[in-house]
Write a structure and sequence with these properties.
Keywords: Membrane, Transmembrane, Transmembrane helix. By secondary structure, this protein is of the alpha+beta class. The chain has two domains: 40 residues; 166 residues, no CATH class. It is built from seven helices and nine strands, in the order ββαββαββαααβααββ. Strands 3-4-9-6-5 form a five-stranded mixed β-sheet, with no helix packed on it. It is globular.
Length: 259
C-alpha cells in the first residue's frame, strides 16, 4: 500500500492507514468534549455587608477550586494523549474485513521501528515471498496466480524505478522507509489507474473464489477509492481526462498467515 499524491493532494488518505486502517484503514471517531459550567445560585441580598462579603468569598473559593480541578484534569488528559500518540508502535498490524474468505487475515506495515524484528524472524524464508509492485506488498509465493504474475511483469517493464527499490533491498531498509515521505517517487496517472484496475480484479477474484491474497484486497474503502478515481478519469465534466502529476510515497507491507 502506498500514498498516491496528485498535484500535492493526497487521494489515498484513507490508508492508509489507511484501514485500516484501515486502514490503514481504514476510520476513528472523534469525541468532541464540551465544558459544562455549574449554575451558581446567589442567596438573596443580605443587609449585612459583612455577610455579603463572606458569601462572595465562599463562592469565589468554590469557583477557584472547581476551575483548578478542571485545569488539572485537562493537563492530565493532554499528557496522556501526548504519551499515547507520540510513542511509535513496534508493530503495526492492520486488519481488514475478510469474512467468508480464506487467506491471510491481517497484514503488517513495515517501518523502521519493526524492520529489524521482522527480518530477524524471516531472514531464512525471504525467498518464500513474492513482490507486488503496484501496492509494494510482499505476499506468499504460493498465493500468486499466473494472472498476477503477468500483471507484475507489466509493472516491472514500465515502472523499473519501483522494481529497483525492491531489487536493491531498500524496501526492507529502515532508514529508507523512514525517509520515504521526503523521497517521493515520480510515476504517472496510468500507474494509479492500472493499480486500481488490478485492485478491482483482485476484489472480484476473491469474492468469486472465496480466497484472497491480502486482506486489503477485500477492503471496501480501497475499492471505493479506486472506483472514484476511475470514474473521474472516465467521465470528466469537460470531456477531457485529467492529467495529474503523480508521486508515490513508498510504503512496504507484508501479508502472511502467522504474526
Amino acid at each position: 500500500m502506498a500514498n498516491i499524491l496528485f498535484d500535492s493532494v493526497d487521494l489515498n488518505a484513507s490508508t492508509v492507514f489507511e484501514s485500516g486502517e484501515t486502514s490503514p484503514g481504514e476510520g476513528l471517531l472523534s469525541k468532541h468534549l464540551r465544558d459544562t459550567h455549574p449554575d451558581w445560585i446567589l442567596e438573596s441580598e443580605k443587609t449585612s455587608r459583612q455577610k455579603r462579603f463572606s458569601d462572595f468569598s465562599t463562592g469565589s473559593f468554590r469557583l477557584a477550586a472547581v476551575f483548578s480541578i478542571l485545569l488539572l484534569g485537562s493537563l492530565t488528559g493532554l499528557t496522556y494523549l501526548q504519551n499515547s500518540y507520540s510513542k511509535p508502535q513496534v508493530e503495526v498490524w492492520i486488519a481488514y474485513p475478510v469474512e467468508r474468505s480464506d487467506g491471510p487475515p491481517i497484514q503488517l506495515r513495515i517501518e523502521k521501528s519493526n524492520t529489524t524484528k521482522w527480518l530477524s524472524s524471516h531472514r531464512e524464508d525471504l525467498e518464500s515471498f513474492a513482490f507486488r509492485i503496484d501496492d509494494q506488498t510482499l505476499v506468499p509465493k504460493e498465493l500468486l496466480s499466473t494472472q498476477e504474475v503477468k500483471y507484475q511483469s507489466w509493472f516491472q517493464k514500465f515502472y523499473p524505478q519501483l522494481w529497483d527499490v525492491y531489487r536493491s533491498g531498500e524496501h526492507l531498509d529502515g532508514d529508507y522507509l523512514e525517509a520515504a515521505p521526503s523521497n517521493m517517487i515520480h510515476v504517472d496517472l496510468r500507474f494509479h489507474l492500472s493499480h486500481c484496475v488490478l485492485a478491482l480484479r483482485r476484489y472480484w477474484n476473491a469474492r468469486e473464489s472465496g480466497k484472497h491474497v491480502c486482506s486489503r484486497d477485500l477492503d471496501p474503502g480501497h475499492i471505493e477509492h479506486c472506483l472514484n478515481s476511475l470514474d473521474e478519469w472516465a467521465f470528466p465534466e469537460d470531456g477531457i481526462p485529467p492529467k495529474h502529476n503523480v508521486w508515490l510515497e513508498w510504503i512496504t507491507q507484508v501479508c502472511e498467515y502467522e504474526t
